[in-house]
């Protein structure tokens, strides 16, 4: 299913196959398979041959199975996220860093650590091909005031982390689409958790500028660069120390279009946080523009869903094709889907593509 999401986006198909000379289609040599036109030609030939039977890239998957490390080889259930990471890493290793494959998925994270003693800020940057987002258990979330159907019985407030859930609100409103679900986590909230500041305390940390040890510091992650294709991974599988691994079924609410990542960018996020604390929210709404006076927003084009629990399950994918039509890909069964179907799914991997918006948009 992760492969379906990757190959569905036309730009990613073109970038993967490149412009190299024709190689033998579906060669067992994965490097040749990805470098030549065999992948693209075979996919398009299968799509326009007139057959209504679904096409399964068995040779490609077998080639990948032969090349993959021991962690992905075998007959047990494998994780779609692990396959995605392994697949993207292999693509980058086969191409130079400037190849469109690397450019399409590559972004940069910035880590800034500020010493409490001397206020020195040290900054490091690391590349990423996807972002993994923490998904807390539903019991750890405070449910918002949700508009309920008047016919629904009012839910009894529950305790969550020592606090009380907000009382229900009667009538229809913006929250009505959530229905009866409690413990709703928004994608923007998960991104805020990723980029929120954290305190570093203890004797282990020492400032490289003033040499102070144990005085503490503040660390914050922000996004230094955004990729054209943004992949977000919801960390649904929890591995508590010494405990039994579980799957987190918390509902993740995500935008279908116009995902705005500007509040999490390095050059905007810290200043926005300071001005917001001073009562000035103007910075948060200011566009992060490039020299052409435009900025990117992201539209969803694929979602990978895991059905089941930690011990086993099944992966399906929702894919956006053509003029916005959505399809559910469940192995060999492909069926039409609505935006509502996509919005209410339990997202595990989210695939977004950037589009450019002008200053006045």
Strand composition percent: 25-35%
* Helix coverage percent: 25-40%
User: What's the oligomerization state?
Assistant: single chain
Q: What is the element string, with H for helices and E for strands?
A: HHHHHHHEEEEEEEEHEEEEEEHHEEEEHE
| Structure annotation, total helices | 11
User: If you average the pLDDT, what whole number results?
Assistant: 70
Helix and strand content put the structural class at: alpha+beta
Structure description:
The protein has 361 residues and is an alpha+beta fold. The protein has a domain at 1-103. It contains 11 helices and 19 strands. The chain has helices at residues 2-8, 10-17, 30-35, 38-47, 58-67, 80-94, 100-105, 187-195, 266-277, 282-285, 339-343; strands at residues 107-115, 121-128, 131-134, 147-148, 159-160, 163-164, 169-170, 184-186, 198-200, 217-225, 229-235, 237-238, 246-247, 251-253, 294-309, 312-321, 325-330, 333-337, 347-358. A 7-stranded mixed sheet has the order 3-11-19-15-16-17-18, sandwiched between helices. Strands 2-1-10-9 form a 4-stranded antiparallel sheet, with helices on one face. The chain has a two-stranded parallel ribbon with strand order 4-7. The longest helix is centred in the N-terminal third of the chain and has 15 residues, at 80-94. It starts with a helix and ends with a strand. Mean pLDDT is 70; it is low at 10-33, 143-148, 155-183 and 269-289. Residues 1-355 form the USP domain. Belongs to the peptidase C19 family. It catalyses: Thiol-dependent hydrolysis of ester, thioester, amide, peptide and isopeptide bonds formed by the C-terminal Gly of ubiquitin (a 76-residue protein attached to proteins as an intracellular targeting signal).
